Amino acid sequence: MRATLFDLERTIRQRRDADPDQSYVAKLTARGRAKIAQKVGEEAVETVIAAMASDRQGAIGESADLLFHLLVLLVDLDISLDDVLDELDRREGVSGISEKASRKGD
Ligand SMILES: N=c1c2ncn([C@@H]3O[C@H](COP(=O)(O)OP(=O)(O)OP(=O)(O)O)[C@@H](O)[C@H]3O)c2ncn1[C@@H]1O[C@H](COP(=O)(O)O)[C@@H](O)[C@H]1O
């Protein structure tokens, strides 16, 4: 059976308090939010580099790294994947073009 992002989110929550010598999640969490956020940035840049090189396998691997590290950051911020999906639901059917145009008068 395919694991979901919800499974990974649950695993990350469980691993946060594990032994940092045994768990990457625990080790990264112990280094603090700034370090977690830095990792998200690094993985995002590596995804962009793979995409610009049309490196399909690289883009898949870096995207997995990016999603994983983003979930570690969200857990650290006590933001659930559901919170983010709720926001995407709220946007569903609203064209990005018209949404941006509606902000022009802000
Ligand atoms: N999906 C992942 C996952 N993706 C990437 N990584 C790790 O992320 C790290 C990224 O490597 P880097 O070289 O960028 O990081 P780094 O060596 O800390 O580098 P610096 O930033 O310190 O320079 C590697 O150690 C990868 O193994 C992951 N580690 C864990 N998971 C999942 O999280 C679960 C719990 O992992 P543990 O907490 O390690 O038990 C695992 O069962 C997996 O399902």
Automatic annotation (TrEMBL):
InterPro entries attached to this UniProt entry: HisE, PRib-ATP_PPHydrolase-like
Pathway: Amino-acid biosynthesis; L-histidine biosynthesis; L-histidine from 5-phospho-alpha-D-ribose 1-diphosphate: step 2/9
UniProt keyword list: Amino-acid biosynthesis, ATP-binding, Cytoplasm, Histidine biosynthesis, Hydrolase, Nucleotide-binding
GO MF assignments: ATP binding; phosphoribosyl-ATP diphosphatase activity
GO CC terms of this entry: cytoplasm
Major localization listed first in the record, in broad terms: cytoplasm
EC number: 3.6.1.31
Subcellular location per the Swiss-Prot or TrEMBL entry: Cytoplasm
Source species, domain of life: Bacteria
GO biological process: L-histidine biosynthetic process
Reaction(s) the record says it catalyses: 1-(5-phospho-beta-D-ribosyl)-ATP + H2O = 1-(5-phospho-beta-D-ribosyl)-5'-AMP + diphosphate + H(+)
HAMAP family assigned: HisE
Similarity field: Belongs to the PRA-PH family.
Protein name: Phosphoribosyl-ATP pyrophosphatase
Gene name of this polypeptide: hisE
